[in-house]
Task: structure prediction
Amino acid sequence: MRVIAGTFRSRVLAAPEGMDTRPTADRLRETLFNVLTQGALDRVNGAAFLDLYAGSGAVGIEALSRGASTVTFVEQGAPALAVLGKNLEKLGLRGGVVRVEKKTVARYLRGAAEKAGAGPFGVVFLDPPYELVDEYTATLGMLGGECLSLLAEDALVVAEHRKKDSLAESYGRLGRIRVLTQGDAGLSFYSITPA
Result:
């Protein structure tokens, strides 16, 4: 696994051992960021980025490499947190630009929505384990409902999922605007729909 572009281009990242954490493949990450940074509408540069189910942190680190102002990593698994910490340390990323939240995604979102100072996030990426289908519904439902205040007005929420597992067209105020597939993975893009 490596950083695709930007400040940390070609830097190698560690990944947790075993099958509990499935890092986003380099090629899929490249596709994701090509969409997020295309043309005049670069959604990453200067944005607050939220990496849910962060694992090794590869997606959030890619966002920092490409100019995100801050990245919040949310992860609860001890092996993944150890690798995430190692990757951030290796690249000298700490303090103001990165925040690591060691808790479940639901607990983080509820807590962040209740207190001032979290967000608004311009880009949210979520990549729960593919087999935890309920996590997609719960997390996207929270982002489109009770935790909508965490999103910037023009925010983009992107969910990585198995290609054969299609996600809903909408979750509360989040409406799907695009789906990309690559291999057996899919990326569903959501934005906030008018009230």
